[in-house]
Structure formats: C-alpha cells, structure tokens
Write a structure and sequence with these properties.
The protein is of the alpha+beta class. The protein has four helices and nine strands. It has a five-stranded antiparallel sheet with strand order 5-6-7-9-8, with helices on one face. Bound molecules: guanosine-5'-monophosphate (5GP) and zinc ion. The site of guanosine-5'-monophosphate has 13 residues, from strand 6.
C-alpha cells in the first residue's frame, strides 16, 4: 500500500506535525493520490504555493509483484550492488555491454523515464547523481562514460522499472545501434 508522507516538518499553516498521513489536512489539500494501483506514478510537489517553506508530499510506491528490479531492490533476486542510497540502488548488469556496465534505479517502481520525470524530478536527480558517483568509483568519469535510459520497447527497453545504464571503460560509438 502506498503512503502519503508529508515532509513539511510541521511548519504548514494547516497545523499538522508531519510524518505519515492517512487522513487530515495535508491529504485533503493534495487531493486524491491513489494507493490502489501500484504502478501509479508518485507525487512529489509543492502543494502550498504561498507558504514560506517547501511542502512536499511524496507517495511511497509499493513493489510491483512481477517486476524484476523490484525483486532486486527487495533482495529476492541477487545482484552485485555497487552503491546504494535511501531511495536508489546501483548494481552490475548481468549481461555487461562494456567493461563497466552498472544499472542505477530508484527503489520505488516507475515504469520508465517519462513517468519518473513527471512524478518525482528530485528522485530522477538522485538517480543522475548516483550515476555520476558510480562513474567516479569505477574510474570512468574522467575518460567519459555513457548514461542511457532506454524508454519504451522500440528503444530496447526490456525491464519496465526505470533504470539508467552507466556504461564505460571502452570507446563508445555514435550513433547507437
Ligand atoms: P533494458 O533493455 O530494459 O534497457 O535494460 C535491462 C537490463 O537489465 C539489460 O541490460 C539486462 O542485461 C539487465 N538485466 C536483466 N535481468 C537482469 C538480472 O536479473 N540481473 C541484473 N543485474 N541485470 C539484469
Ligand atoms: Zn519495479
């Protein structure tokens, strides 16, 4: 089940004290954020435009039962993890296409880049930062590396849990195949 979590730390004029919300002023103000459809995109937005501080409401997305990468996040399928943050994880691709081939994913399930970008731009930025950190740790940042989000079947996406491919350690061709 998804949750609504208010991050305003109790400074909202609505008077709540932050934390997990199942009802109350914040839930009302952000409107209905579905917790029934686990494939739904999360919400992360300022909902109190006139307030002096930021008020962000975020829906925590439940794992999708038949999603390979949700299973890797949960530890149900093993993967060689190379980096992890509270909301992202990076692990080596099982079929590497370059000397370094790491996948960086949000722990929450979003099917593709479009859904992540439109729902939680902060989380997308965290994925990008972790991609850079992985490149640094793998020693490919200085020489150059490629970050790829295959988006949609036509582009070659086969796992519909958004992921950034971080590829490096060899010279990359352009245009891509
Ligand atoms: P896509 O084709 O969706 O852009 O990328 C999916 C990637 O996931 C592929 O590069 C594929 O090799 C990788 N992959 C598929 N199954 C597994 C797995 O079980 N473990 C790991 N670590 N990578 C996987
Ligand atoms: Zn997933």
């Amino acid at each position: 089940m998804s949750r609504l979590v208010c991050l305003c730390l109790g400074v909202a004029p609505g008077g709540h004290t932050g934390g997990e919300l199942s009802a109350g002023p914040c839930t009302t103000k952000v409107g209905a954020t579905s917790s029934q459809d686990t494939t739904i995109s999360a919400v992360s937005r300022s909902w109190w435009p006139n307030a002096e501080s930021h008020h962000t409401v975020r829906a925590t997305i439940a794992p999708v039962a038949d999603c390979l990468f949700c299973k890797i996040v949960a530890g149900d399928i093993p993967a060689e993890r190379v980096a992890e943050s509270s909301r992202t994880v990076a692990f080596r691709d099982i079929n590497p296409q370059a000397p370094t081939h790491v996948l960086v994913i949000p722990k929450d399930h979003y099917p593709d880049l479009a859904s992540l970008a439109s729902s939680d731009a902060d989380l997308l930025a965290e994925v990008a930062v972790q991609a850079q950190q992985v490149a640094e740790a793998e020693g490919i940042a200085a020489g150059g590396y490629r970050v790829v989000f295959n988006t949609g079947a036509e582009a070659g996406q086969t796992v519909f849990h958004v992921h950034a491919h971080v590829l490096g350690g060899r010279r990359m061709a352009w245009p891509p195949g």
